[in-house]
Write a structure and sequence with these properties.
alpha+beta; 3 helices; 39% helix; disordered N terminus
Length: 169
């Protein structure tokens, strides 16, 4: 296709089906004779190829994002990523705290960043992180990026999750 616009998008096209080692191993355990196994694998592959062709047709019909739009979105993302460290620094300076972790989530009231912190006052250290079963409760400044007027200090529940932490309450 000369002069075709390169398709750029968030989603990748479907992958072409093939017979895998796992499929062969499952067939070997099935108790079918060799010819029946081969026929069953070919039937599975034929069905998968039909599904692949259907998925490809749907994928090709989807509107694709123009490259300049993708670049603009990347630029916005980089600008946005820079705003979180700037906000962290503002919180630390303004409230005389040390932010030790940041979580991010989308809640029913907006997009939120939770800045978990330790106060500069020793008397407050024992309340900075309170364990309760599998959950820890931590002091946090919650920045509601959607509505800055709803940002506030408080306590949130966090759990260990996937090598990091996740807000659960």
């Amino acid at each position: 296709m000369p002069n075709a616009v390169k398709k750029v998008g968030i989603f990748e096209p479907p992958t072409k089906p093939k017979i895998t080692k796992e499929m062969k191993a499952t067939m070997a355990k099935s108790g079918l004779d060799s010819a029946a196994q081969k026929k069953a694998l070919e039937d599975q592959l034929t069905a998968a190829k039909a599904k692949y062709l259907e998925d490809m047709a749907q994928w090709n019909e989807k509107p694709q994002t123009e490259p300049q739009t993708v670049e603009a979105l990347k630029s916005d993302l980089e600008e946005f990523k820079a705003s979180v460290p700037k906000r962290k620094e503002e919180i630390e300076k303004t409230y005389n705290v040390l932010v030790f972790a940041v979580t991010h989530e989308y809640l029913e009231f907006g997009e939120c960043y939770d800045f978990l912190y330790v106060s500069d006052y020793k008397s407050e250290w024992k309340y900075a992180l309170l364990p309760q079963r599998n959950t820890f409760y931590a002091r946090a400044y919650v920045w509601n990026k959607t509505d800055d007027n709803c940002s506030e200090f408080g306590t949130i529940g966090i759990c260990s999750f996937g090598g990091g932490i996740k807000r659960v309450a």
